[in-house]
From TrEMBL:
HAMAP family: PanB
Gene name per UniProt: panB
GO biological processes: methylation; pantothenate biosynthetic process
Identification of the protein by name: 3-methyl-2-oxobutanoate hydroxymethyltransferase
Active site (UniProt): E181
Protein family (similarity comment): Belongs to the PanB family.
Superkingdom field: Bacteria
Organism for this UniProt entry: Lysobacter spongiicola DSM 21749
Quaternary data: Homodecamer; pentamer of dimers.
């Protein structure tokens, strides 16, 4: 496989080729999921929960993401590596530039930023400075205190319209990819039709251009929290870690995952 590049993401969308993404935090799993044909790998701040055992992503630091990005980088050969901007590391353009530069120097090809609004200026600032950005809308876990929990977003008409506006705005600001988390399937499908960058869903239905899951979740590990509806245990059908990742990649490519049982209407 030839290594993924940022411009190829838009090509994939134009060609209708679905993108399979997983989170990853270390070199061993990075090698396994890259070998299984994963397209995109995210060093998510979900590491705060699944690696560090915390109850939210808020305590994760720039040092944490930089460390895990270096670890994952060493295991990858073809997948495109995305690093999460942790809580408040993107509160200003200057702060964001500092953190994002560290992540690209650690081997990431792109950084992920939660939200729109004041983040639009940050996205623009990074993109103008040669730092590709993945946006993240819908349920943004760094907003957990304001939201009062992890809930499906964009359910009523006004919220759906706001989400579609935000999606157009992050694309306009220069984002090259858009994660949609916990959004009703029809709303995510509408956003996907609205923008010419690829959308990557997690709990956002089958109408997105790609899918992402937390590695631990798709391997059936119990996080100690209630398992969200969109999570599927691929180890059960895959029989081994490589088998699970192959099953996931195939299911995403062929549009078999997520189905209605793993989506919100
Ligand atoms: O941190 C993370 O794992 C994420 C994905 C769930 C999109 O942001
Ligand atoms: Na995240």
């Amino acid at each position: 496989r030839s290594p993924w590049t940022v411009p190829r993401l838009r090509e994939a969308k134009r060609e209708g080729r679905k993108l399979a993404m997983l989170t990853c935090y270390d070199a061993g799993f990075a090698r396994a999921i890259d070998d299984a044909g994963i397209d995109l790998v995210l060093v998510g701040d979900s590491l705060g929960m699944v690696v560090q055992g915390r109850s939210s992503t808020l305590p994760v630091t720039v040092d944490d993401i930089a460390y895990h990005t270096r670890c994952v980088r060493r295991g990858l050969s073809s997948a495109l590596l995305v690093a999460d901007m942790p809580f408040q590391s993107d509160a200003s353009p200057a702060l964001a530039l500092q953190a994002a530069t560290r992540f690209l120097q650690a081997g990431a090809a792109m950084v992920k930023i939660e939200g729109a609004g004041p983040k639009l200026e940050v996205i623009r600032y990074l993109v103008e400075r040669e730092i590709p950005v993945c946006a993240h809308l819908g349920l943004t876990p760094q907003s957990v205190l304001r939201l009062g929990g992890y809930k499906v977003q964009g359910r009523d008409e006004a919220a759906a319209a706001r989400l579609r506006e935000d999606a157009r705005a992050v694309a306009e600001a220069g984002a090259e990819l858009l994660v949609l988390e916990c959004v009703p399937s029809p709303v995510a499908a509408a956003v996907t039709a609205d923008v010419d960058i690829a959308t990557i869903g997690i709990g956002a239905g089958p109408g997105c251009d790609g899918q992402v899951l937390v590695l631990h979740d798709m391997l059936g590990l119990d996080s100690g929290h209630r398992r969200p509806k969109f999570v599927k245990d691929f180890l059960a059908e895959g029989g081994s870690v490589p088998g699970a990742v192959l099953a996931y990649v195939d299911a995403v490519r062929e549009g078999r995952f997520p189905d209605a049982a793993h989506s919100y209407d």
